[in-house]
Amino acid sequence: MLSQTSEKSKAYENHWPSIDSKIAICMSGGVDSSVSAYLLKQKGYETIGLTGWLIKGSGRCCDNGMIDAAKVCEQIGVNHISKDLRVFFKQEIVDPFISSYNAGSTPIPCITCNTSIKWGSLMQYAFSELSCTHIATGHYAKLVKEDSGFKILRPKDSKKDQTFMLWGLTQEVLSKTVFPLGDLIKEEAREIARTGNLLVADKEESQDICFVSDKEGTQGFLGKYLQVREGYIIENKTGKVLGLHQGTYNYTVGQRKGLGIAHSEPLYVIKLDVEQNIVYAGTKDELEGHELIAKNVNWIMSSVGMSPNLHLRVRAKIRYNSPTALAKVTLLENNQVRVVFDEPQSAITSGQSVVFYDESDQILLGGGWIV
């Protein structure tokens, strides 16, 4: 057993580095990263605002966002720097996103962006070119330092909990990371922004993919790169042809809307056969499964995954907004795991993440990519 339920009652204190640290705050131009920069400045840290220029043309993070970040930095009296990462971002995030859909998987680019961009290129740039000692982000997560190492815990604001997106981080990067919002709820962050007269205090937030516009949506974005390939929608249980589709990339497991099929009961996408160009549809109960295999697993505390014969009891979840569920994790070869849930889970989807918490449901243990 990794943890006792008494962990819930522990008063964990969010970790802050020594006051002589020089911190680069990754800024998107939104209220959360702006408040994080403001708090760092208020606490007396030497602070630099750092924004990655990620995509060509307009985008949520790369036009008004970059300008707003610069304006906030000017307001609070810190320097702002933008780093051109457009080529790298396309290679590491956008191209794999397109390829994943084309192969019948459903990716989560924000998790890859965290490890490759924020705690990758931007962190490296901040340390090597700006002489920073730490980076900070506007994630709602709590970082705790103990004798055994650094732990990521759920934040004060359970509704804004973003620990799910951080499972790819390592002890090395966590030792140089700050999460200023770990002890705040969103409303408190907004109030701090208003108190500081930050121009983004009432700015709306977006939780969608930054390089996909609201106007075109995911299907419209993919349609610019992937060819229409008409195929059959087939009933999963009977093999009956129900209709036609214009490409498997337009669908994801668990999808209900957009099938365009009249049926006696609601139908969902059950699976995708890219090679045969078939979308299988069925009823909600056909989506349920107990088991999955995940690859490229990362354990926040590396000692957790040391023994190949170890069986872990954890709480796990397979999508950002779902609750965790009790499961057993068996470590396999080649950095893979088998996860068996106590109760069936709906729409286990290739390309998504399975994320592990301890049995108290408070400490992030790690995660992997569902295959």
How does this structure look, described?
The chain folds into three domains: 12-195, 3-Layer(aba) Sandwich (Rossmann fold), CATH 3.40.50; 227-282, Adenine nucleotide alpha hydrolases-like domains (SH3 type barrels, Roll), CATH 2.30.30; 288-370, Elongation Factor Tu (Ef-tu), domain 3, CATH 2.40.30. It has helices spanning 31-43, 64-76, 86-102, 109-128, 171-174, 186-195, 217-223; strands spanning 22-26, 46-53, 79-84, 134-136, 142-146, 149-153, 177-178, 231-235, 241-245, 268-273, 278-282, 288-299, 311-317, 325-331, 337-346, 353-357, 363-370. It has seven helices and 17 strands. It has 371 residues and is α/β, with parallel strands linked by helices. Helix 3 packs antiparallel against helix 4. The strands form three sheets. Strands 12-15-14-13-16-17 form a six-stranded antiparallel barrel. A five-stranded parallel sheet has the order 3-2-1-4-7, with helices on both faces. The radius of gyration is 22 Å and the shape is globular. The protein starts with 21 loop residues before the first strand and ends with a strand. The longest helix has 20 residues, at 109-128. Strand 16 and strand 17 (363-370) form a beta hairpin.
